[in-house]
């Protein structure tokens, strides 16, 4: 049923700039993220992965067409709360401890400091980061930082988790650990998961794949098969 879809693009396109220097980052696209989705968004650098992910997150608006969240609600109801975004690269706030970073969106959403801290510690425990809860971001590894970003996403009990190249700056082992955590977070929250990546070893961990090329969604395969 279409009203169960977590996110849906209908003819959604995005052009940056205007006139002769305009860049068409995403051609008109029809796609839908169903409940329980475990989806890899793959394609070379510049193919439009971040653009599509940001549209699905409601962080950006299409230049043409529409994006909607039938099972969730209007764009202003997405964050903080039902839609969690894990950005490419470092996203923890440097002056806050790891636990404070994870707790912050909960506090912004109205939780008390004590409740937010308790939930943050629980989420950090799930991603095996209990022992770095009181450290600053600069004191932990890149892999730990991406796992902390996943914990921050998980703590809000999202319906949809969108991760943009979450393993892009990590080695294979740390990257695999982040994918483990994202899959576990999505299972635990009962959330849909979309992970953009150009790493085939990440993509093959996810059962479905969308392939982007030059801003065009060229293939939606039911299963990852090679
Ligand atoms: P990917 O995430 O697959 O690397 P992006 O979605 O970031 O691709 O970019 C798609 C295209 O849009 C690229 O050609 C990129 O240079 C361009 N682009 C992305 N963001 C902007 C922006 N803010 N302003 C102008 N062009 C942009
Ligand atoms: Mg990108």
Task: Give a nutshell description of this structure.
With 226 residues, the protein is α/β, with parallel strands linked by helices. The protein contains six helices and nine strands; from the N terminus they run βββαββαααβαβαββ.
What would you say this structure looks like, in words?
There is one protein chain. This protein has 226 residues and is of the alpha/beta class. Helices cover 31% and strands 26% of the residues. α2 (98-108) crosses α3 (113-126), α3 (113-126) packs across α4 and α4 (142-155) packs parallel to α5. Residues 222-226 have low confidence and may be disordered. Magnesium ion binds next to α1.
Topology:
Layout: E1 7-16, E2 23-33, E3 38-42, H1 49-56, E4 64-68, E5 83-86, H2 98-108, H3 113-126, H4 142-155, E6 160-164, H5 172-189, E7 192-197, H6 200-203, E8 208-213, E9 216-221
Parallel strand pairs: 3-7, 3-8, 5-6, 6-7
Antiparallel strand pairs: 1-2, 1-4, 8-9
| CATH architecture descriptor text | 3-Layer(aba) Sandwich
Q: Share of helix among residues?
A: 25-40%
Largest β sheet strand count, sense and barrel closure = 6 strands, mixed
| Percent in strands | 25-35%
The CATH superfamily is identified as P-loop containing nucleotide triphosphate hydrolases
Q: Tally the helices: what do you get? A: 6
SSE string:
EEEHEEHHHEHEHEE
- Side by side, the strands of the main sheet go 5-6-7-3-8-9
Mean pLDDT: 91
What Rg, in angstroms, do the CA atoms define? 17 Å
What is the domain tally? 1
Distance between the termini: 30 Å
Helix/strand-derived category reads alpha/beta
**Beta strands, count:** 9
